Amino acid sequence: MDTLIQQIINGLVLGSMYALVALGYTMVYGIINLINFAHGEVLMVGALVSWSVVTALGGSGLPGWVLMLISLPIAVLVCCTLNFGIEKLAYRPLRNAPRLAPLITAMGMSLLLQTLAMIVWKPNPKPYPQLLPVEPMHIGGAVISVTQVLILGTTAVTLAGLMFLVNRTRLGRAMRATAENPRVAALMGVKPDVVISTTFIIGAALAALAGVMWAANYGTVQHTMGFLPGLKAFTAAVLGGIGNLGGAVVGGLLLGLLEAIGAGYLGELTGGVLGSHYVDIFAFAALILVLTLRPSGLLGERVADRA
After folding, report:
1. Rounded to the nearest 5 degrees, what angle is found at the Cα of 300, between the Cα atoms of 213 and 152?
2. Residue 84 contacts residue 197 (beta carbons within 8 Å)
3. What are the tens digits of pLDDT across the range 50-98?
4. Which string of b and e fits 221-250 if b means at least 16 CB within 10 Å?
5. What angle do the packed helices 227-240 and 100-121 form, to 10 degrees?
6. Does an H or E element contain 137, and which?
């Protein structure tokens, strides 16, 4: 039972980070029907920028939590600027092109960002400093760190704020109007280009936040670190229902729980044939199963029908 509780905690933490990145995928897809495969690399850039700031200020004597508070806004700013530039230079000229063109462009942008990061930060993995207290807190027979508590709390607040933004604010109404029909929305005073750019910026902020959390939780950063989380987050978005904000959250948490519980019991279930390093099969096996039985995802796809 203690192992199960521990794996549930680990799964919720991992799923929370997946959910943040999945929201960026699903928001962009819901408005312009584009899968931004460079989104995982935005997470990577956020983590590496945070590492650079923390390393540069490491000798200043500031407490770890202060260093995190300083590095996080800088990482968010850099990632938002980066994603704004990607949308304006790479995706906007292809907005009316066949769907295959922006998809290939997104893949190319992903590889480009990985290569540029390798040049700027070098290819070797770098240890991310332990900024928060390391003393664990005990929940029954399981333990949870201060960093993990911060991840869960920050993610819950962020997701609640995003849901309020999309469903209750003027910007959210503009997003939904642009998703339904950008031309009619423009006639009603909405600026579709501004709305789309804002959506990319919000997604980048979420990815940067997830990147800093990922680095703080796992203690290492490198130029390829965004590929697998980005792929898993896309899987989570599809699993929950692409274009559905609630589905992205549910998909992320469910995927994290599947991976964590699978890692805890995979060796036992297979008699030692498969170890925890094979845990990725759970994510994609679940995706195949859901798409076979329910192609629109667990909560259904919410993409507006365009006139």
Report:
1. 20
2. yes
3. 999 999 998 788 898 899 999 999 999 999 999 999 999 999 998 888 8
4. bbbebbbebbbbbbbbbbbbbbbbbbbbbb
5. 150
6. strand 137-139
In Å, what is the CA distance from 191 to each residue of 86, 102, 194, 223? Answer: 19, 21, 5, 35
For 4-58, where are the E strands, in sequence order?
none
Tokens 């980070």, residue?
17
Enter the tokens of residue 278: 């094979």
Measured CA to CA, the distance from residue 56 to residue 176 in angstroms comes to: 42
pLDDT tens track for 137-192? 888 778 898 999 999 998 889 888 988 998 889 998 999 888 888 888 898 889 99
Q: Helix %, strand %, coil % for the chain, to 5?
A: 75, 5, 20
Cα–Cα nearest to 158, from 218, 110, 212: 212
Helix (H) or strand (E) holding 107: helix 100-121
Contact at 8 Å (CB) between 127 and 220? yes
- Residue 72, amino acid: L
Question: Which tokens go with 248?
Answer: 């992205």
Single-letter residue type at 210: A
> Helices 227-240 & 2-32, crossing angle to 10 degrees?
80
DSSP β-ladder status, 220-221 and 126-127: antiparallel
Residue type, 193: D
Q: Would you state the torsion angle of the CA atoms of residues 86, 245, 175, 39, taken in this order, to the nearest 10 degrees?
A: 0
Taking CA atoms, 136 is separated from 1, 4, 66, in Å, by 19, 18, 20
The backbone torsions φ and ψ at residue 202, rounded to the nearest 5 degrees and listed phi first, read -65, -45
Name the packing angle between helices 39-56 and 100-121 (round to 10°).
Answer: 20
Task: Output phi, psi for 84, to 5 deg.
Answer: -60, -45
Is the separation of the CB atoms in 36 and 25 below 8 Å?
Answer: yes
Distance, CA of 305 to CA of 112 (rounded, Å): 33
